[in-house]
Amino acid sequence: MNCFPRPNIVISRCIEFDHCRYDGSMITSDFVAALKPHAHFIPVCAEMEIGLGVPRSSIRIVSVKGELRLIQPATGLDVTDRMVSFSRSFLCSLSGIDGFILKFRSPSCGMKDIKVYSSPDGPSTATKAAGFFGGAVVKSFPDLAIEDEGRLRNNNLREHFLTRIFTLAAYREVEREVNMAKLIRFHSTNKLLLAAHSQKEAKVLGNIVANREGKDISKLLGEYHEHLAMALMRPPRYTSKANVLMHSLGYFSHELSSAEKAFFLQSIEKYKQKKLPFSAPLSILQSWIARFDEEYLKEQTFFEPFPEKLIELCRDTQCEWAGAALFEGRKAGRAD
Do the bridges between strand 67-72 and strand 145-148 make them parallel or antiparallel, or are there none, so unpaired? Predict the structure, then answer.
């Protein structure tokens, strides 16, 4: 069992931490509750930080002469400038952050798809926007894992989020030690994980570690961080995960019987045809890693990218292939 550093995650305070929603309620989340023992959370309620109490009249995004404003209809109070100022100062104060979990569809914390109203007391329009704080997060930290509690109900997106925050947290330790041997070690143990996410970026990262130009370690660490974030930006394609399994099979080619190899290859094909979940061929391969005590594969984070106790949060054969579609929807939403 691997030892994992605790990721630093900024979270909307109303999710599992405090009864601070406009109506005094709190959002429950099995995902966040399970993650608490394994991560360091930084809870924040943007609306309370700008002086709105609990309970409070709700706020909404209103289009005023073509400009989006954050207004409290019950009082007519415009809190746009306060929210923009707080968002800027708070986000600039952060360091060593690995990810964000934000409130779903909140006019302050929402990432996207927030209703825009024609007037403080008028109907909503066809336009959608990001929340003021949530939008600032996305713009300020485009390379980090950022999700809302609504999207994290999807188990595939949970797995991608966990993989990113724990990998980035592990890399922060490498950056802190400023040690070439640590960087080489990190890259070696993450090779298969990186290959599954992006062959292109995995090759770039390999060239950075090779350091043929003899660059200073500090510059290498910065370049590696940039491309590591790019490699982990999207969930791995199911075909890429299958390719990693095929590659790993080569480590046991002389120890396995023809029947064992054939069964494993059939399992991979069924996974690619969406007839089996990824856990089926993965479990077979993991049993061989233990059986033959294959040291290189035992150290690969691809097989355990985050704590084992969190794996059950990502088990759902019904949505095995749904995460990629949802992720593409989020990317499309950001581009609007």
Answer: unpaired
- pLDDT tens across the length of the chain (336 residues): 578 999 999 999 999 999 999 999 999 999 999 999 999 999 999 999 999 999 999 999 999 999 999 999 999 999 999 999 999 999 999 999 999 999 999 999 999 999 999 999 988 887 899 999 999 999 999 999 999 999 999 988 999 999 999 999 999 999 999 999 999 999 999 999 999 999 999 999 999 999 999 999 999 999 999 999 999 999 999 999 999 999 999 999 899 999 999 999 999 999 999 999 999 999 999 999 999 999 999 999 999 999 999 988 887 544 455 545 545 555 544 433
| Domain-wise residue ranges, the chain | 8-153, 157-231, 238-325
3-state SS record for 31-73 = HHHHHHHHCEEEEECHHHHCCCCCCCCCCEEEEECCEEEEEEC
User: Whole-model pTM?
Assistant: 0.90
